[in-house]
Amino acid sequence: MTSATSICLILVVLLSVGVLSATRLATSIRLVAAQGVVLGILPPLVLGGRVGLHVVAFAAGAIAIKAVLMPWLLLRAMREAEVRREAEPFIGFSASLLLAGLLAGAAFLLADELPIPAPDAPLLVGSALATLAIGALVMVSRKKAVTQVLGYLLVENGIFLFGQTVAGGMPTLVELGILLDVLVGVFVMGIAIFHINREFDHMSVPELKALRD
Amino acid sequence: MGLAAYALALVLAPLLPGVVGRTRALMAGRQGAPLLQLYRDLGRLLRKGAVYSRQSTLIFRAGPVVLLAAVALALLLVPPGGGARAAVAFPADLVVFVALLALARFATVLAALDTGSSLEGMGASRELFFAALTEPALLLALVVVARASGHVSLSAMLGGELPAAWARHGVALGLAALALFVAVLAENARVPVDDPATHLELTMIHEVMVLDHSGPDLALIEYAAALKLWATSALVASLVVPVRADAAWLTALVATAGVLGVAVAIGMVESAMARLRLERVPQLLVGAGVLAAFALVLVVAG
Amino acid sequence: MILFLAALGVLLAGGLGAALAGRRAALATALGAGGALLGGGLGAAAALAGILERSSTTLSVGWGAPFGTIELNIDVLSAVFLLPTFLVPALAAIYGAGYLQHWRHTRSLGGAWFAYDVLVASMALVLAARGTLVFLVAWEVMALASFLLVTFEHERLEVRRAGWIYLVATHLGTAALLVFFLLLGGAGGDFRTPISGQGASAVLPGALFLLALVGFGTKAGLAPLHVWLPEAHPVAPSHVSAVMSGVMIETGIYGILRATLLLGPPPWWWGACLLGIGVVSTLVGVLLALAQQDLKRLLAYSSVEHVGIMAMGGGLGLLGVAGGNTLVALLGFSAALLHMLNHSLFKALLFLAAGAVKHATGTLALDRLGGLLRRMRDTGAVMLAGTLGAAALPPLNGFAGELLLFAAALAAAANAPLELAGPGTLVLITLGLAGALAAAAGVKAFGAVFLGQPRGPEALAAREVKSPMRVPMHLLAAGCVALGLFPALGLVLVARAAVVLADGAGPGMMVAVDAALGLARRAGYAALALLVLASLVALLRRLLLRGRSVGAADTWACGYEGAVPRAQYTGSSLVQPAVAFFKPVLTSTRPAVVPPTGFHPAAASFRADTPDVFRHGFWQPVFRRLAGWLERPRALQHGSTHLYLLYIFVTLLALLAYMRGWSR
User: Fold this and answer.
1) What ipTM was assigned to the predicted interfaces of this complex?
2) Which of B170, B175, B297 faces A105 most closely, judged by CB atoms?
3) Which of C234, C482, C590, C652 places its Cα 20 to 30 Å from the Cα of C599?
4) Other Cβ atoms closer than 10 A to C219
5) Are B216 and C544 inside 8 Å of each other by CB?
6) Which alpha helices (H) appear in C53-156, and where do they start and end?
7) What is the predicted pLDDT for the residue at A202?
8) How far, in Å, are A99, A127, C417 from residue A112 at the CA level?
9) Left, alpha or beta for B35 (phi > 0: left; psi -120 to 50: alpha)?
């Protein structure tokens, strides 16, 4: 494994931590976009010399969806729905940082033990597990629906990394399927956020209370 | 070599704040203060008399003295850079280094409380809190280097085998260097933790603690701050510039250039960032600690 | 051994004499304190002889006793612990003679001195006892004597409550120890003989280790069993607090270390357990110390922290033995022992100084004190020495022990496999965090009491205490400084005991001992160099200022009205950012805020009390539920005589039925 790959992998993990620790939602979304870019250039790096046309095309597609389309959708949804810009955590920022560090450390130690037959797997598997875990943490520790989507995206990115451990990458069809899945998910969530927000805007408080049960 | 480098550091240290300030000024399109400004300030302060607060005791007068003694002693343990050994080196000397910096802080904080001033008390309070988060980050970052090189003395772990360690654990050492840099910023009260350029604002930490010192006492404090900046910058420089030279003069050149380079980097950070909101500072320091811990896991697992 | 027995004899004689003297205060004090002083001196000599001698000395009594023999033995491990156990109470007794004068007309001092001398003798006996019976009896006498001393001012409600908590906690610990000794005896061992291989099942050593951890850990004040400590230590008279916090809790550490010698080669998890408990104690202790408003409570929590540091050292030592790493094992154990020695000095000193503050001002509330350094120079100076020691800063004595522990952790983290490197790293992080927080707590304790200006009338009226109280403080401070400048001396005292403890680790012991000694020597050089450098700088400043104007002015308050005592930062406000940050841990913090109101706010206040996290979050709910269960049978006790008669009849009938069933 070249050091460029390992730098990329660590960057992916650090960006996940960044998503968790950012106070502004927009920053988090941009960090996810940056992670998408890094993930896009990763497959050619992992494959080294054996870069074919379909790998490049796939990388370009991944970047287009992960780094451009979905962040754009989310930012738009935020703007339309006038979501407040703060991230609003359940767990404080410092505590979530500590938790993320613990999770990432555990992921890398665990990756050492996992019997995955891949070249230079530890770092790859470690970053994949860490990204998955931090994604899950983002989902459970933040109040906003948008951050839940972001956590969902992080989890998907972790799965994407896992796919790289299979020599030659995951079958393109499977990967495309997952991407499509996520895209639909983000769409649905984005629309839901938008609508809930619009509905609740002109709803009086007593009506909200009636929704209790 | 070690003692000569130590003497060089004692002489050149007041240059560093000048370099940081000049970098800041240049980035902002100003000309800025002269590089040698601190030398002039020190000379001027040393020629003055002193005023002591009526409310203070011997503790207040002992503060600057202990501060300078502790920092000067700590500098003795720091390898100058370029793989050269420090004047004094022994296993676990990094703990003594950290403890001496802690003693320097202890003396400063007590002197601040001795005046009974509420502003100095506020600075002391913040200094104590941030130090509690900086110290683990600093230690962890150094432990990463220790684990990567297999040595537990500053001079040995930043010495001849560091290039090999970079080749094996490059990513982890990079993260550790980043964490170390953040810890150095906090330890020296620089942006984004503190702003040495602000006097009399409610957000400051270090400057407010020394409000009541004057004359030679203030000179001791300023000089100690410069020495501390030199010592900690030398640590960062030794870590990120694993260049090894044969000739002694070349090593000295590499070492000095490295320290000045760190000062320039600090200046660039200061002009690129604003000081963080006070409640965000702990997150930055915890983040540095987490980063270092993560790097340690990478070294252990890799 | 002769010296040791003589010391015990003198102590008991002094105690009995004091008890007989009863209300004649002067006589009781002379006999009691004199007995403690003389006995302590003799005992310290015995301990030194025990440390320096190559072989251990034994005294066996031929009488048969249940659970083994009656046997006393001073080997090197006992001797190391005996040294402070005799020395500190001897010095504290001089102090106590002055301190107790306050009560000479209102209280019978004979009883107090009797309990004090018996406490010292029983602590020594605990450390020397080998037979199970002698040990348990001495252990129980130690608990009771200290209970009597804790409740010295029993007319105060909080003192009675603290004594009650102490009594319950210590008996829960003793219960665990009873089971421990029963099982140990069942496997053919006692405090002298290790358990034999054939008598022991596979799980027995582990179970014994856990029992020892609970039983001795309670006495040591390891979290979460520490809750009695911050209640009991502050309310006792200060010389008793010094003995309890400086020496008595260390018998718990002794017990744990002794137990590990008896139970065969330690598996990994023993060390991990002890280390984990040490980490929790250190962090909980230092955080709660930081948040306290009462000087002696702060010091008591600081004891929890330092016991945690000793436990971390013992844990690393055990891990080193388990992993076959001699360097880590020896450094860990020597760190624990050296820190024990140093802690006994500086903690005793701090409690004595706190007592002097209480004596002079009548209060220990940090937010009412301040500016005492001008009024009580001597007490302030020794308190500063103790604070530096407790904060583990050079050039005082707390530093060397922590340096050794750091070195052990570094050696583990840098060069050992994961099962040793992980715990080593944990210790490093804990020490880094706790070191800085302990320094903050020290700044709070010293700064709020001695620096700035008086915050209340009590502090304004303070006067320095009399010389019987000052002399022992100076002696202890001198000991702290001496061990700070020459830590190798302290290490030499404990090194052989550390070698005994680390014995199972494997080859390379001499190299490890040399490494430890070298490190201690370096710590000493650093301290000396610091003194020299500081003197040089001070000299330079004096030369510079000669002939120039040295003025005096009020503290500069940035243009506002300067030097207002009420505007000073208090101890609470000093640590408020840290306490607020650690709120997820310090869940029990209850801030009471009276915010400023209106356009011309007159009075506003902020106060944050932090009771013990474990006491409120764990023990109180547990005991409340327990009390609920035990409440139920009380319904039977109705008060009506007829009902009681009915009970008797029912019982008789049941017995009859039972007997009938039996005979069939």
Assistant:
1) 0.95
2) B297
3) C590
4) 30
5) yes
6) 76-99, 109-128, 132-150
7) 44
8) 20, 11, 14
9) alpha
Tokens 């870069």 correspond to A51
CA atoms of B229 and B66, how far apart (whole Å)? 17
* Of the candidate ranges A164-168, B49-53, C230-234, C240-244, the one whose mean pLDDT is the lowest: A164-168
Task: Tell me whether residues C553 and B53 touch, CB distance under 8 A.
Answer: yes
Q: Does A122 reach chain B within 8 Å, measured CB to CB? A: yes
Contact pairs from chain B to chain C, CB under 8 Å:
252
pLDDT of residue C644: 80
Task: Summarize pLDDT for B188-220 with one digit per residue, the tens.
Answer: 988 888 887 766 555 578 888 888 899 999 999
Residue type, A143: K
Go through chain C and tell me how many residues it has: 664
Q: How many CB atoms lie within 10 A of CB C563?
A: 20
Taking the domains of chain A in order of start, what are their residue ranges?
A: 3-210
C449-463 pLDDT, tens digit per residue, is: 999 999 888 888 888
Q: Which residues of C520-552 are buried (b: 16+ CB within 10 A; e: fewer)?
A: bbbbbbbbebbbebbeebbeebeebbeeeeeee
C-beta atoms of B302 and A98 within 8 A: no
User: With a CB-CB cutoff of 8 Å, which residues 108-137 of chain A face chain C?
Assistant: 109
Contact across the interface for A10 and B301, Cβ inside 8 Å:
no
Across chain C, mean pLDDT equals: 90
Q: How far apart are CA B289 and CA B292, in angstroms?
A: 5
Average pLDDT over residues B250-276: 92
- Note whether B132 contacts C433, CB cutoff 8 Å: yes
213 residues of chain A, pLDDT tens digit each = 457 888 888 899 999 999 988 888 888 889 999 998 998 888 777 766 666 777 777 778 878 888 888 888 888 877 776 666 676 677 888 888 999 999 998 888 888 777 766 656 568 888 888 999 999 898 888 777 778 788 888 888 888 888 777 655 556 666 666 676 777 677 667 666 666 665 555 444 455 555 555
Q: Which chains does B contact via 3+ CB–CB distances below 8 A? A: A, C
- For A112, the closest of B174, B286, B301 (CB atoms) is B301
What confidence score (pLDDT) does residue B221 get?
96
pTM, whole model, 2 decimals?
0.92
Measured between CA atoms, how close is B297 to chain A, in angstroms?
A: 6
Q: Which residue has the higher pLDDT, C2 or A179?
A: C2
Backbone angles phi, psi at C549, to 5 degrees: -80, 125
Q: Determine the pLDDT at residue C63.
A: 67
Nearest CB to B297; choose among A17, A98, A108: A108
pLDDT at C527 over 90: yes
Looking up tokens 């015990």, which residue turns up? C8
Chain A, residues 45-64, CB within 8 A of chain C, namely none
Residues of A in contact with C582 (CB under 8 A): none
Q: What is the extent of the structural domain holding B291?
A: 2-301
Contacts of A93 in chain B (CB under 8 A): 283
Q: What domain count does chain B have?
A: 1
Within 8 A of B51 by CB-CB distance, chain C residues are 550-553
B118 → closest Cβ in C414, C569, C575: C569
Q: Which residues of A touch C584 (CB under 8 A)?
A: 92, 95
Q: Is C581 on the interface with A (CB under 8 A)?
A: yes
Pairwise CA distance, residues C35 & C41, whole Å: 10
| Amino acid making up residue C567 | A
DSSP A154-193: HHHHHHHHHHHHSTT-S-HHHHHHHHHHHHHHHHHHHHHH
Mutant choice from B52, B100, B106 vs C, greatest count of C C-beta within 10 A: B106
Which member of A97, A122, A126 has the closest CB to residue B290? A97
List of chain A residues whose C-beta atoms are within 8 Å of the C-beta of residue C581: 94
